[in-house]
Amino acid sequence: MADGVLPVLSHFQAEPLLKAHRAGEATAITSLDLGLTTVEVTLGREGVAMLSGGGLDWATLTVIAADNVGCYTIEGGEAVKAQQFSEMLNRMYSLMPTRRAPTMLISGIPMHRVKDVDPTEDTRRKIRAANPRGRVLDTATGLGYTAIEAARTADHVTTIEIDPTALAMARLNPWSRSLFDNPKIQQVIGDSFDVVASLPDENFSVIVHDPPIMSLAGDLYSKDMYAELYRILRRSGRLFHYIGDPDGKMGANVTRGATRRLLDAGFARVERRPEAFGVVAYKER
User: In order of start, what are the domains of the chain with their CATH numbers?
Assistant: First the structure.
């Protein structure tokens, strides 16, 4: 664990500790950062000893183990659920664990695919479809996974987040650390609709447009938004637009509408990328 970083546990870490305790083990291997790294901890009569952030009693670990959709930060022997309410947007944000990177729930809706595909693979599929090079724009930061993955191959990534509360959640998430310490990533706070309108023409080689679902951010699916994205994209540039399951009834309808509006906004062609739950739109040469 890095200095000053609080341990974060979920049921994936708590359950094995309880099992080892019931088996009479004196120590156990666990993770204090939701699976990124592992450490050995001592199992005492009262709870887990020598745990960074303070010891944790068995009653608290039992509570964590029973919560399949919550992550908990540990400080001073206390477990606090990783969730915050946004007064700005009137939404509750929380971290939801998976076997790899957690996703973020916004008013109970997961921001990544969690059925059959975990958030890590979900992000990689988007990035493979986008193929980020040069200067990249990410229109919705969230937990920062897109910006982090894009920065592996891009020269520079600008990422936009409307709600500071979402970034506060990212700071609690061990898998989001690179969002805050990678010099190739520039964070911008603001409404993507307004921020994009203020950006210069042909400034980006690749755009990753991964907005919340249409019911939460309808303006980000509008022809006006697509026209602005077209304007700031360089010639021969490409836009990956995450939409949702193209084979589902709702996803198919949104895909058809988005494809039509992207073409109306000026894009030369739009290709379906069902493996990434989105489309790629290309600007002419």
Answer: 8-81 (no CATH), 112-282 (3.40.50.150)
Confidence (pTM): 0.93
C-alpha 222: how far from chain center: 23
In order of 38, 187, 212, 246, 277, the CA distances from 162 in angstroms are 34, 11, 11, 26, 23
- Burial class from Cβ neighbours inside 10 Å (0-12, 13-18, 19+) for residue 119 reads buried
Beta-bridge partner residues of 72: 9, 81
The single residue listed with the structure tokens 């206390």 is: 78
Tokens 């000053």, residue located: 4
Report d(CA 11, CA 238) in Å as an integer: 40
Q: What is the pLDDT of residues 40-90, one digit of tens each?
A: 999 999 999 867 667 899 999 999 999 999 999 998 889 999 999 999 999
pLDDT tens digits for range 215-261: 788 899 999 999 999 999 999 999 999 998 888 888 889 999 999 99
- Cβ atoms of residues 51 and 135 within 8 Å: no
Q: Which residues contact 45 (CB under 8 A, 6 or more apart)?
A: none
What token pair was written down for 49?
Answer: 């000893």
Q: How far, in Å, CA of 114 to CA of 163, rounded? A: 23
Q: How many residues does the chain have?
A: 285
Q: Which residues sit opposite 269 in a β-bridge?
A: 282
